[in-house]
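Shipment paperwork, digital attachment
Item: protein structure file
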Amino acid sequence: IKAAIEAELSRQARPATPAPAPEPEPEAGPTPEKDENYTPPYIIKAVRQVLGKIDLDPASSAVAQRIVLATVYLTKANDSLRTKTPWLGRVWLNPPFSNPAPFTSKLIEEYEAGRTKAAILLVNNGTETAWGQALLSRTYPVCFVGAHAGGRSRIDFWQKEPDEPRTGNRYAQMIFYLGQEPEKFREVFSQFGVIR
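Attachment content:
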């Protein structure tokens, strides 16, 4: 999988100047300046329990990879949306919360085309958005992260050090599973909230 993704990246010619970013859906909340919030280790541990390993993290950074440890990860520099890089294998996706729409669309497209074998997606609870409706209209299991069985009510993301989470997250999250083992997802992620 790593070789296939790297071959596709090297095959494609990068434009001299990047194309303009797609317009984000208007919504109150996260901004591009605040997108560098990394998933805490306990969530990534749960992701690995379901997926086995992470072949691709298509919206990442070197900092995030200290915890995620994907076989291949893509950053702003080798943008997985502007290139035709296939999202192969088992995918972990925590897209920029300021503009998750193109990432969620790409994930759905890659999964339904059979290139992504399984995926776990972490997004803000945007049930009213077009991308939220696109996810919810399918049969993908979703965990609505919340106070459940004495657990955490919101995810504390980190920015500089994994053991120093930034507290006070004002947004609820949803974690979706796209794959053939929904019961495994339910078993592992029910510790974080209600699964639908």
